[in-house]
Design brief:
Radius of gyration: 19 Å
Strand content: 15-25%
Helix content: 40-55%
Largest sheet: 6 strands, antiparallel
Order of helices and strands: EHHHEHEEEHEEEH
Number of helices: 6
């Protein structure tokens, strides 16, 4: 059984009082007025704690992406962040935190790219997978859109963000247990999704 450990900092953040305090500090526009020297030190240390929470969250998403998608995309050419029009800010800690997801793109031959992602809310442990195939210049690939999603996956036409259309799979079986996230079900779903894509584009 494949599992990923949830960082202690995220367990700390899951306590409502801790979450509220760190959220206020993150939203503060500089050092609050009225603090004395010792209080300013505590404020800055809390900022460091918040950065650790968000960095650990990014790292957890990365660990999950590697567990689910890495072996399935290992033979493909990775697309660097910033090389496509729609991924401005992708890979940044702040964007991963705000959108609760981390993804990567890989080239499928000369004119297609495969985007794969994992999504996990920092205060919850229900894993979500996403996948799409695009033309090299950024438009959705019509061949892929004509292909029915595999079992366990649904096509999201419009999510109100920049990522749709994409296939999405919910993985409730990955819910955290004793500080670890089980990834077996997610890995099986990912394998089922890339197999028809690869056959379609003859990778």
């Amino acid at each position: 059984m494949a599992t990923i450990a949830v960082p202690e900092s995220l367990t700390f953040y899951s306590v409502p009082a801790h979450q509220a305090a760190l959220d206020r500090i993150r939203e503060a526009d500089g050092l609050p007025r009225g603090l004395i020297l010792d209080e300013a030190r505590l404020f800055h240390l809390a900022r460091l704690t918040d950065l650790k929470v968000r960095t650990d969250y990014w790292s957890l998403l990365h660990d999950l992406w590697r567990a689910v998608w890495h072996d399935l995309t290992d033979g493909l050419d990775p697309v660097p962040f910033g090389d496509t029009l729609w991924d401005d800010g992708a890979g940044e800690i702040g964007l991963a935190w705000a959108e609760h997801l981390l993804g990567a793109s890989h080239r499928l031959g000369p004119d297609k790219t495969l985007w794969t992602a994992v999504s996990l809310h920092p205060s919850g442990r229900s894993l979500r997978l996403m996948l799409s195939v695009d033309r090299a210049h950024g438009e959705s690939d019509p061949d892929w859109l004509d292909f029915p999603p595999p079992e366990g996956w649904t096509l999201v036409d419009d999510d109100g963000e920049d990522y749709a259309p994409f296939w999405r799979a919910e993985v409730p079986a990955a819910t955290e247990l004793d500080g670890r996230i089980v990834t077996d079900a997610a890995e099986a779903l990912a394998s089922d999704a890339v197999a028809p894509v690869y056959s379609m584009v003859q990778v």
